[in-house]
Write the structure tokens for this entry.
Amino acid sequence: MSEVHKIAVIGLPQSGKSSLTKALQGLAKPHDIEFVEVHHPDELHGHTYDVVLQVVDATRLEESLMLTPHIIDEQEKIVLAIGRYDLLQKTDHSLDIPKLEQLIGVPTCRVSVRLNYGLPECLEIIERTIHKPASTAHPIYHLRDQADEDTYRAYVHGILTETLTHAKDDKHQTRLERIDKVLTNPWLGFPIMMAILYFVFWCTFTLGAYPQEWIEMGIDALSDTLRGVMEPTWWSSLLIDGVLAGVGAVLAFLPNIIILFFFISLMEDSGYMAREAYIMDAIMHRVGLHGRSFVPMLMGFGCNVPAIMAARDIQNPKDRVLTMLMVPFMSCSARLPVYMLFVDTFFEHHKALVMISLYAIGICLSVLFALIMKRTRWFRQDDDDTVNELPEFRVPKARNTVAHIWERVADYLQKICTVILWASVIIWALEYFPTQDLNDLEHSYLASIGQFVAPLMEPLGFDWKMSVCLITGLPAKEAIVSTLAILYGGDISAAGFTPLTAYSFMLFVLLYFPCVATIATLHREAGKQWAWFTVVHSLFLAWFISFIVYQIGSLFI
């Protein structure tokens, strides 16, 4: 039986098996060659591959080629495959492939599955490379030993200067390139970004209001039906006042979650998220970071846990840790139901503006936090990294959009069936016992806990019930909504909240650490000391900001 040669393919999107890998595998069936996709050079470590096929994006040449020395650190035999070359040509740019191959010293070819171009030639080059001894005479093999990343960046820039021919003037630009110039304009880019975010939140509230109302009506109808057919026992109270009230309050915001992540998926898949990072690059540089640190922060709007893990790709260790510490300032989707509940109730005519203000405050405070931390001995350094290239705009694929939405919905439903369900049961039990009377909350176990922390929270305008809600939000912020529903019977408008206390409460939810899972991830990725630092400083900052807002607001309201 002949030996099977394993080829690692790197540089492809991480969503599913790529069409390029499938096409090459189909051609290679009679040749005893197996293609294996990897997504980071670290995944090559400890594995033996006959050849590594690096797929280079023709529209992001510099960024793609910067990965090459890291690949050679793990595997010596590599082949470059220039993909999406037709998109480069549409802009009247061209790349001298033979000269690129000569200067970089690595076998290079062009491939396109969509145009059915270059695949047999690519396979032929791979087969030759398998049986050819690895050479260390090429410049890239010597440069990989350079400790300074900037040396290789300068080398890549020099290669592209000699091999990449640019369009001569703006008349050759495509319509998308002209749009791109407007979206990334130093003066127009930020206002456009804020307008897009306003539109997204407006749609989230306006379009989500109808299905949200239907779900709430269904839950109320089910509760009334159960009350009519069940005896008033502790079991029926647990089911109706605990599980159904708590879980139903969080479930009602599912349509809003779907709508929000539909738009986020469109922005990610179209390439606009990368433009947002580019726009923020100048701001990030003012605090000693760069636009790449903003990408994990953007991911934090979905969930802080994968966002912290995404910061692994930042090369500088100090920037990597600092970015991880900035992520919890981002309003993750777990906080969204809390915001929506209060915004719907107290800010009916300014919903989108209030939502944007919360997200903007989180971003601004994260930047201020980084500015302060960069002046401490732990993070002080010079940094001149920049965001150099942007992916081209592309039409989002329906399959990817549905997959992204389902991922978030599945996570939301999983939390409802686990953390929220158990939190609802525990809150109900603390409220029901020892009096076994939900109308006598003042003598319940829950009241004892709330009244213990109430003096600390009173300067923020919070009573003991609000304080308890913040405690139940430690495992998951969605639990705050279920606790509010159980304690206040689903009507917070008549529960002592005012627009001022509501906003102060939302700020506290925004600023204290998102959940236990986030702290556990920080512990694993950045170390125990930074995990505890985040717990302490976020609680202090949440209390301080809420205190300032409530006390100053009380002078005018």
In short: The chain has two domains: 5-171, 190-380+399-554. Residues 342 and 503 are 8 Å apart (CA to CA). The beta strands are 5-10, 33-37, 51-57, 78-83, 94-95, 108-111, 164-165.
